Amino acid sequence: MKEIIAAIRIEKIGPTKKALLEIGIPGFTAFKAVGRGKRVTDETLLAKRKMSIAKVDPADNKSELLMTEFINGARTFPCRVVIVLVSDADADKVVQAIIKVNRTNYGIGDGKIFVMPLEESIRIRTEETGVAAL
């Protein structure tokens, strides 16, 4: 069994849910979080990503502060964390489905996926264990 944890853009939760349903994985847990990835210094990527965050008006100090914090790494951003528990056989198709709907053309900020072994699973109501409890 595998535990798949994906940190994704806030606006991608709907498409992610749909993609999981389409591959036969209806169950998952999701919650709100804030975070950020590594600091990006490529000016071309930064320019594209800045425009996706906000329309910067030179007279708007708040927008300018947001952009400065984005560039210098001080800003965290809202995201969604999705946890999916699956059999070993389903792990790759879940990862590929999440990648497919969360990849953008920005080049940065699309999220991260972590895949970890899951030692045991127990359904409280029936006491089923292992894959049957997923």
CATH C-level class of the largest domain = Alpha Beta
Low-confidence stretches: none
> In DSSP terms, counting alpha (H) and pi (I) runs of 4 or more, how many helices?
4
- Going by CATH, the architecture of the largest domain would be 2-Layer Sandwich
**Beta-strand residue fraction:** 15-25%
How would you write the strand order of the largest sheet?
2-3-1-4
- The amount of helix comes to 25-40%
Radius of gyration: 18 Å
**Biggest pleated sheet:** 4 strands, antiparallel
* Whole-number total of structural domains: 2
Short summary:
The chain is an alpha+beta fold.
Question: Could you please describe the fold and organization of this structure?
Answer:
The protein has 134 residues and is of the alpha+beta class. The protein has two domains: 1-36 and 77-134, Alpha-Beta Plaits (2-Layer Sandwich); 38-75, no CATH class. The protein contains four helices and four strands, in the order βαβααβαβ. A four-stranded antiparallel beta sheet has the order 2-3-1-4, covered by helices on one side. α1 (13-22) runs antiparallel to α4. The chain is elongated, with a radius of gyration of 18 Å. The relative contact order is 0.31. The model has no long low-confidence stretch (mean pLDDT 86).
Topology:
Layout: E1 2-9, H1 13-22, E2 29-35, H2 43-53, H3 61-72, E3 77-86, H4 88-102, E4 112-117
Antiparallel strand pairs: 1-3, 1-4, 2-3
Helix pairs in contact: 1-4
Which key phrases capture this entry?
4-stranded antiparallel sheet; 4 strands; about 130 residues; alpha+beta; 4 helices; elongated; Alpha-Beta Plaits
